[in-house]
Structure formats: structure tokens, C-alpha cells
Write a structure and sequence with these properties.
With 393 residues, this protein is α/β, with parallel strands linked by helices. The chain contains 15 helices and 12 strands. It has 2 domains: 206 residues, Rossmann fold; 172 residues, Rossmann fold. It has a 7-stranded parallel sheet with strand order 3-2-1-4-5-6-7, with helices on both faces. A 5-stranded parallel sheet has the order 10-9-8-11-12, with helices on both faces. Helix 1 crosses helix 4, helix 2 crosses helix 15 and helix 7 crosses helix 9. The longest helix is centred in the N-terminal third of the chain and has 20 residues.
Length: 393
């Protein structure tokens, strides 16, 4: 009840400030609402190549620190955070006076505002595939209040267009947001363009090898689990038996850990004597994919990108029963994932030692989910945005 009241008051305040901001004239600019880095970064970079249109990036604390020194002259990065009231009001002003809004997530404020006529909202989402359900198909929605459901519907109705990298993901968007297929554009996903940039891949690998010389002489396992609700401190009960991994694989492998940005506490890795490296604070996870030999994950969207590299993956859904009940999956988990499923560390080690990987299955998975992501996605999205603005002149 208290949470709903807080949301209600927040949205009422947002709506009031937005109505005032709408009194100001429209300006030629593109506003990004940012909660994840990659898609926004590649679209922004391509925009600066093709157009002089001003860009405003509205960011949370994590993404603000990344973009702060990466924008061109004349563009702005603003903290879109209620705890920063001046920046927050500026953010609302830019939202109310822009002809184009780029979104990468669910933003609750969309349920409380009515944009000026002709304003277009493009949802670029933050993943190019989906294992766990979201939107209307999230299992937790059933337990939400009617007021919450009305809010969700208003937010989803604000999406004028959604970019997609495959027919499979397009169908998921239609179900998740209850939208028509006419709203979906098959541009491909910008964050995947990097997998076609051989020069960047090689330079990134060399930078990491230079800083961590041992990486070049070991096989690298990357463990990158998804975020779970109410799990701000995974370090206290870590789901992998690292001591066992080190005992069985330590002579040939090292383990990189990339926890979700919402995990607060640092891992204590000193006891593992150079076997474990915590890269949770490393901003661009794709960089780590380039140097990894095996990915271990669970319900994350990382496999859809890792499949570009045609490297093996192991899926470790140690809480599968609970996660199925609380979140749910788009289809049967075992048949969805392109690699062996392990339920304990011993299974993981056995799969690695026996090389229990079906590369044909992995290639099928890649083709199914990355159909339209062929290295030109950023250009496609930018062309669409610029055309979208031109049509409203």
C-alpha cells in the first residue's frame, strides 16, 4: 500500500511538472532515456556521424558516470533522478519539448504524461532476445493491483515503434506489450554491431591482455548471472563452488565474474589466489565476451550476443523451480537454451572437461534470434529516427 501511494504521488508530481514544461516550444533534439549503456551508445555514436541534431541523454547514476565524458559539444547528459531535483526538472523539460524520445526500458512516468501531438517514442529495449518473461507475460503481474495493471497498459501504449532483431523477438514484443506487429521495425539490434568490427575486437582483446597478461595464457570462463529481485548482495551466498572449480580447473582456466550492476557488495576473491577476477564494475560486458572461452549464465540475455562468437555456453539455473514460479519463461527452459544445463558446480566441471557442447544447436539458436542483426543495426535505427523526425516537420 505504501509503495503504491509513493508511486501515485511521484506520478502526480511528474504529470504536473510535465504539463508546465509543455508550455515551452518544441526544439529540434533527440532525448534518450537511458538505463542500459550499449544500445544507446551505438545509436548515439552513429547519430553524430549522420546528423548535427542535438541529443540529450537522461541517465541514472550508473549510466550517467559512463556517458558524462562521452558526449559531443552541444549535447548534454543529465541525471534523471528525483533525488537530484534541479536535474530532474531539466529532464522533464527536455522530455516535454522533444519531437523524438528513445527508450530502452519500462519507464513508469510514461503512464502519467501526454506528449505533444506528433512526438514519436521509439523503444529500443536492452536485449536482443528473451529467456525470462517480461511485460504482460511476467508471472508476477497476476499478483499486482488493478491500479498497477492500468499503469502498465498506459506505459506500453506509449511505444510508437519497437526495434527488433528477429521474428522470434518480434512475436515476444507483441505478447509482452500487447502491441500490433505494425509497430515493430526489423532494424537489428545496435549493440550487436560490435561483433562485426574485427578491429575493435582485436584492440579490446589486446588492451585486456596487456593489463592482465595471464589471460592470454589461460582459458577463460565468464560467469554472468542475471539479477534476481531482493538480491542486492549475492556475495554472501555465492551460487558457485569456486573452491571446487579452482581445484578441478585451476591449472588451465581462470574465472571472470560479471555480476549485475544492481549487486552492491564486492566479491572477496583474494582467497582464490589468482583464479578469480571480479569484473562486475566493468561497464561493457561485450568486451569480456571477446576474451572468454566459455560462458556460464542462467536467465540472462547475454547468450543471444555470445552466440555471435560461436563459443560454448553452460546454463546454470540453480533456482529454476523458484524462478519458473515467480517470473516464468517464454518456452520450456531446457529446449530454449543452446547448451548443457547444469544444476551444481560438479555438473559444470563435468561439462567443461567432457566438452559437452552441441555447436549445431548453438548455430540454430543464433540464426533464430539474430536474423536481422548483421552489422548495420545502428545505421538502420538512426536512419529510422531521422526519417521519423523529418516526417513531423
Amino acid at each position: 500500500m505504501a509503495r503504491e501511494l509513493a508511486i501515485y504521488l511521484y506520478l502526480k508530481l511528474f504529470s504536473f511538472l510535465f504539463i508546465i514544461a509543455k508550455l515551452f516550444p518544441m526544439q529540434k533534439k533527440i532525448v534518450f532515456c537511458v538505463s542500459f549503456i550499449e544500445n544507446n551508445m551505438y545509436i548515439y555514436q552513429e547519430l553524430k556521424k549522420q546528423s548535427s541534431t542535438s541529443c540529450i541523454i537522461l541517465a541514472d547514476n550508473r549510466t550517467y558516470s559512463f556517458f558524462q565524458d562521452k558526449v559531443h559539444d552541444g549535447d548534454k547528459v543529465i541525471q534523471f533522478i528525483p533525488k537530484k531535483p534541479i536535474s530532474f526538472i531539466k529532464s522533464i523539460y527536455h522530455l516535454a519539448t522533444s519531437p523524438a524520445i528513445v527508450l530502452d526500458n519500462y519507464f513508469g512516468f510514461l503512464s502519467a504524461v501526454q506528449f505533444k501531438e506528433g512526438v514519436k517514442k521509439l523503444q529500443i529495449w536492452h536485449a536482443n532476445g528473451a529467456i525470462k518473461t517480461f511485460g504482460w507475460k511476467d508471472a508476477s503481474v497476476e499478483k499486482r493491483s488493478e491500479q498497477s495493471k492500468k499503469r502498465f497498459a498506459k506505459v506500453y501504449s506509449q511505444f510508437d515503434y519497437i526495434i527488433s532483431g528477429s521474428e522470434t523477438m518480434s512475436q515476444i514484443f507483441q505478447e509482452a506489450f500487447s502491441i500490433s506487429k505494425e509497430k515493430i521495425i526489423h532494424t537489428g539490434i545496435p549493440r550487436t554491431d560490435i561483433f562485426f568490427d574485427k578491429q575493435y575486437i582485436e584492440s579490446t582483446k589486446e588492451k585486456l591482455y596487456k593489463k592482465y597478461a595471464i589471460f592470454k595464457h589461460k582459458k577463460i570462463i565468464l560467469y554472468a548471472p542475471t539479477f534476481r529481485e531482493n538480491e542486492e548482495d549475492i556475495s554472501e551466498v555465492f551460487p558457485l563452488n569456486i573452491s571446487y572449480l579452482k581445484q578441478k580447473l585451476g591449472s588451465d582456466y581462470i574465472l571472470l565474474i560479471k555480476l549485475h550492476p544492481s549487486i552492491n557488495k564486492k566479491m572477496n576473491i583474494n582467497q582464490y589466489d589468482g583464479f578469480v577476477y571480479d569484473f562486475s564494475d566493468y561497464a561493457l560486458i561485450n568486451d569480456l565476451l571477446f576474451i572468454s572461452d566459455i560462458l556460464i549464465t542462467d536467465y540472462s540475455s547475454i547468450p543471444f550476443e555470445y552466440s555471435f562468437l560461436q563459443k560454448p555456453m553452460i546454463f546454470y539455473p540453480y533456482d529454476l523451480e523458484e524462478y519458473t514460479r515467480t517470473r516464468g519463461f517464454w518456452t520450456d527452459y531446457d529446449s530454449l537454451v543452446p547448451g548443457p544445463v547444469a544444476y551444481n558446480t560438479e555438473d559444470i566441471v563435468e561439462n567443461i572437461i567432457n566438452s559437452s557442447f552441441n555447436m549445431e544447436q548453438l548455430d540454430y539458436f543464433h540464426q533464430k534470434w539474430n536474423t536481422y542483426s548483421i552489422g548495420e543495426s545502428s545505421k538502420n535505427v538512426v536512419a529510422f529516427i531521422l526519417d521519423m523526425i523529418d516526417k513531423e516537420k
